[in-house]
Amino acid sequence: MHSPAKSRKRFVKQLHASKARKKAGSGFQMSESNEVDTPSRNRRVGLLGGTFDPPHNGHIALALYAQEHVGLDQIWFIPSAVPPHKMQKTSTPASLRWEMTCAAVNPYTPRLVVSDVELERPGPSYTYQTVKRIRGMLGNEAELFWIIGRDNIAEIPFWMEPQRILEEAAIIAGGRPGVPLPDDIPGWLARRLIVLQGPDLPVSSTAIRDHASRGIINPEWVPGPVSEIIRREGLYGYPRMTPLSD
């Protein structure tokens, strides 16, 4: 494992490298100050938050499916610093989760990009605070959509300031089409909820970590560049790669 100081230096280096790549792209991207340039026209922006520990092909499939079926111009992957519901659990250092998320998303840039809006803020990552911050970055003209798995719909009323979140962003719920919808969705949520009928996501980060602990990485679940990082760092109990000795 890296020391905190080394991890922080590596994290900062990765952030600057990623931002430099994004500045060369089209549309609006993060600048050196981590702000987003004002778009020249109204944009429909999807926001996909999560620990991404690790990011997997299900995340990519959900983003692309939402983009196609809802007509989104761009989707931001937003790695969380400390998710409120996981504050007592250990997770992979933010620097490595950031690196893995960038590696997973890179082939799809600029359709999909990675934002450090939560990683740069200390403390737990609350959706309400994130959406408000992004609204300030993009202005009132942008249409925002927070993307979740449909199995998380029932949790929304228990989020911090859920109705205020929906004042700023609609909710897109996709994946796991066999999961039934809650029977008691409140009206204020139903009016701002878009339920997708796909994609089917037969993969989870939990399953990937479990397999990695047994030395298995399924290429159908994990993007190749992410697999390389897991092997290099020995994440989730995967046998760490060691240099060959002379």
Describe this structure in words.
The chain has 246 residues and is α/β, with parallel strands linked by helices. The protein has a single domain (44-237), classed as HUPs (Rossmann fold, 3-Layer(aba) Sandwich), CATH 3.40.50. It contains eight helices and six strands. The protein has a six-stranded parallel beta sheet with strand order 3-2-1-4-5-6. Helix 3 links the parallel strand 2 (74-79) and strand 3 (112-114). Helix 3 packs antiparallel against helix 8. The chain starts with a helix and ends in a 13-residue tail after the last helix. 35% of the residues are buried. Mean pLDDT is 83; it is low at 1-40.
Radius of gyration: 18 Å
Strand content is: 5-15%
Q: How much helical structure, as a percent, in the residues?
A: 25-40%
Q: Please state the average pLDDT score.
A: 83
Q: Can you write the helix and strand succession as a string?
A: HEHEHEHEHEHEHH
Please state the second-level CATH architecture. 3-Layer(aba) Sandwich
CATH class: Alpha Beta
Q: Count the strands?
A: 6
The CATH topology corresponds to Rossmann fold
The helix count comes to 8
Going by CATH, the homologous superfamily would be HUPs
Number of spatially distinct domains: 1
Tell me the distance between the termini: 24 Å
Main sheet?
6 strands, parallel
Contiguous runs where pLDDT drops below 50 for at least 5 residues: 1-40
Read across the widest sheet, the strand sequence of neighbours is 3-2-1-4-5-6
Helix/strand class: alpha/beta
